[in-house]
Specification:
Length: 387
């Protein structure tokens, strides 16, 4: 690969030095096009790999019309090349190139070149119909850093129709992604603002009103981030004018939406339950675990060691502890004025009612700390491994 890169770099210098002297199409072929084909493993002296003025009775094409070069692999044409003089503009490429391509299903790629610029086409839109836009443009007068990597895919040893179409798709996607990123950074529309806020884990409901309020902040953040990334290549970075920051009053009661799943919403009362759990069990390693169906408080970050689960989206919010409710627990709940449901859950009118069940919370902690309750033979372990 290093030798290939060296030869491509030498060819780029060659094009820059002699290109202006290639005033005719034939001179361009001899001085600029054939040398590149040789670097790509297609020797112009090997007719099993390169055939000039190739004609194969293409339908609808005059007998005098022939494609300038056909590159072969295993006896099959795989790439057509139409050549123009160095000074010619390629915007209006020859229509017969597409006719050649469309009439030859085995050909994966067609190219048009003036020696300094190469435009490669394939059939991503409609199979066997050459696309109107190139999937790759190689400009030897202004080459990209990865030009050798791109051209390596066209080397005789690697030339394969499926691989070339994969390359075409990669380049089309890359261009589209660049355009989308540039547009998003320039415009900072609400979809982009929502994405930034989600990734930043903003503790607010991401409705349109809130997104509009933080849009100026995102514009400012983008400007500062881009400026910081390019600062090392600038002698004196230009400080972009900062947009005035609107005052945002935090809403502590607003639900928090999981950025990876908008169906998981942690409510203020669920967060309050976690705070009360920490009050009842100070110093314990507790954490919140929310799902689409219930909220839970777990020990040591282990989802199967949940002290309790809470369902707050029902008409009667309820709580269920990991340890089955005993007779003593029933007495404690009834003495606290709590109502028990038939399924072993306890109705919870408000988060503060958890204080009245402090004894059961402590028993649940003891249960979770006992490893014997979580051995594989334990039914409780099998039941508790969900979620």
């Amino acid at each position: 690969m290093e030798e290939f890169k060296r030869r491509i770099a030498a060819h780029i210098d060659h094009v820059k030095k002699v290109g202006a002297h290639c005033v005719s199409e034939e001179t361009t072929k001899q001085a600029l096009i054939l040398p590149l084909l040789d670097i790509l493993g297609f020797s112009p002296y090997d007719p099993t790999r390169v055939q000039a003025e190739y004609g194969a009775d293409f339908p609808g094409v005059k007998a005098t019309e022939r494609v300038d070069y056909a590159l072969f692999s295993n006896g099959t044409p795989v790439l057509f090349i139409e050549a123009k003089a160095h000074s010619q503009n390629l915007n209006n490429h020859c229509p017969q190139l597409s006719r050649y391509y469309n009439a030859t299903p085995e050909v994966a790629v067609a190219a048009i070149t003036n020696g300094r610029e190469w435009r490669f086409f394939t059939d991503l839109v409609n199979r066997n119909i050459m696309d109107s836009a190139p999937f790759l443009i190689v400009d030897f007068e202004n080459p990209d850093d990865d030009v050798a990597e791109q051209l390596r895919r066209f080397h005789y040893d690697q030339l394969e129709a499926g691989a070339l179409r994969a390359l075409a798709e990669e380049n089309i996607y890359l261009t589209s992604f660049k355009d989308a990123i540039t547009s998003s950074l320039r415009d900072c529309d609400l979809d982009f603002v929502r994405y930034v806020a989600s990734r930043a884990n903003v503790q607010r409901q991401l409705n349109a009103r809130f997104l509009e309020s933080i849009q100026p902040l995102v514009v400012q953040a983008v400007a500062q981030s881009v400026s910081a990334m390019v600062a090392t290549s600038l002698s004196r970075p230009t400080k972009m004018e900062e947009a005035p920051a609107p005052e945002i009053v935090p809403d502590e009661d607003a639900p928090v939406i999981d950025p990876s799943n908008d169906k998981i919403v942690t409510t203020a009362e669920e967060r309050r339950l976690f705070e009360i759990s920490q009050d009842i069990l100070p110093g314990e390693n507790l954490s919140m675990r929310d799902t689409e169906t219930y909220f839970s408080v777990v020990l040591d970050g282990k989802s199967n060691r949940w002290l309790f689960r809470f369902w707050g989206d029902k008409r009667q919010p309820s709580i269920q502890f990991i340890e089955p409710i005993t007779e003593a627990h029933q007495v404690e709940a009834e003495r606290a004025g709590m109502e028990l449901a038939k399924n072993g859950q306890i109705l919870l009118g408000k988060p503060e009612d958890l204080y009245r069940l402090a004894g059961i919370v402590r028993d649940a902690l003891t249960y979770c700390k006992n490893n014997d309750n979580f051995r594989r033979t334990s039914k409780r372990s099998a039941d508790g491994d969900e979620g």
